[in-house]
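Translate structure to sequence.
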């Protein structure tokens, strides 16, 4: 499917020999509910910031409809091919690949199946080699391409970029829900274009009032990873192809990206430790009374009856996603309701199928563990 420029050059002298994702320790999606919020700019600068911490970083521009990484990374050379595989370009220490490098003059791909096929090729055919982190700059929105990518790429987590306006939050929530569906933990929220810092007095002016990033993080119960200022220098450095972290290392904006990278790493580590520590060692569904018993990895024990879990279902049909208010009337649930099936959702929760046919809620281990009393013995 891909055509390589015959004279394509790359600055990557370190030709790795392992195609696909096999030697990548963590894959993180950078997503947004809508376009233009600065997702690609965050992905680029975050990649460079992580690289400046001495980590091996890759950046996959999966925004096939509007690939902007070649411009932002300042490297438009067609990548080389080796035995039918693609060698990623390398700039500022970051290995990167983009449809914009491979078919720069091609008309925009319109149909999702073709886009999905192209992304599959990116995932399986690029010689990424060993990486600590691969960041995937997702196309905006929550369509088939995003879903397919989230499923294929064994993501460690996703970060969601939003702008401060309240309106943007509602759209970003939809993006977050998509990751819930495919069991990918949200590592946190980044608020971009968050206040204009005066280059003379360093005072911040809130151009778009709203605090949307913090609000979104609260709603989703995920960490707020940081705020990136609205700074013309960020835009200009993107256009010039020299990320601000390279151009102006001591600037307020560069510091914001470095803080973001630090927070992301800390939080990813927490999620991974938590999912190991919090996770259940053993889950038992008691057929007799339909109750659920979880023995946690730390040895503690929790017990739940089906009715309590059903009325606390966190899905969008049972809880209003904007106000957080419960829509489900507990009186409408039969006291004899049972849990029919229990499935693990990634490493962070359970999906329960109830006897009333309902099964869309994801019960996070964190919440289950916090909420439930511990029972003294195995008997329920
Ligand atoms: P997206 O990937 O969400 O569509 P981009 O990263 O392409 O958005 O950014 C859209 C435009 O906004 C670009 O011109 C970019 O340079 C500019 N931009 C992004 N973030 C900032 C910022 N923090 N300050 C100033 N301009 C920004």
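Result:
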């Amino acid at each position: 499917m891909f055509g390589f420029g015959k004279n394509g050059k790359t600055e990557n002298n370190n030709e790795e020999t392992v195609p696909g994702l096999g030697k990548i320790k963590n894959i993180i999606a950078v997503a947004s509910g809508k376009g233009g919020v600065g997702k690609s700019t965050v992905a680029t600068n975050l990649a460079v910031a992580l690289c400046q911490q001495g980590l091996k970083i890759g950046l996959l521009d999966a925004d096939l409809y509007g690939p902007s990484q070649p411009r932002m990374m300042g490297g438009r050379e067609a990548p080389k091919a080796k035995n039918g595989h693609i060698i990623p370009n390398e700039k500022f220490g970051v290995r990167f690949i983009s449809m914009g490098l491979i078919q720069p003059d091609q008309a925009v791909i319109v149909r999702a199946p073709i886009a999905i096929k192209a992304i599959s090729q990116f995932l399986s055919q690029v010689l990424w080699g060993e990486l600590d982190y691969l960041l995937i700059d997702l196309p905006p929105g929550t369509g088939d391409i995003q879903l397919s990518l989230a499923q294929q790429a064994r993501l460690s987590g996703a970060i969601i970029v939003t702008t401060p306006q309240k309106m943007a939050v509602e759209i970003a929530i939809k993006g977050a829900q998509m990751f819930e569906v495919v069991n990918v933990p949200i590592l946190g929220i980044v608020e971009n274009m968050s206040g204009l810092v005066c280059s003379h007095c360093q005072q911040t002016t809130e151009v778009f009032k709203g605090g949307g990033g913090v609000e979104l993080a609260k709603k989703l119960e995920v960490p707020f990873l940081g705020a990136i200022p609205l700074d013309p220098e960020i835009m200009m450095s993107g256009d010039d192809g020299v990320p601000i972290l390279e151009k102006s290392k001591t600037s307020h904006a560069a510091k914001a990206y470095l803080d973001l990278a630090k927070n992301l790493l800390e939080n990813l580590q927490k999620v991974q430790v938590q999912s190991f520590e919090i996770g259940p060692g053993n889950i038992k569904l008691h057929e007799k009374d339909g109750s659920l018993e979880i023995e946690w990895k730390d040895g503690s024990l929790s017990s739940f009856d089906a009715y309590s879990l059903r009325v606390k279902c966190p899905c969008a049909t049972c809880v209003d996603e904007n106000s957080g208010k419960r829509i489900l009337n507990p009186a409408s649930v039969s006291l004899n309701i049972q849990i029919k099936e229990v499935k693990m959702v990634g490493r962070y929760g359970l999906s329960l199928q109830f006897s009333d046919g309902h099964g869309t809620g994801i019960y996070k281990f964190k919440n289950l563990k916090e909420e439930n009393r511990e029972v003294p013995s195995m008997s329920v």
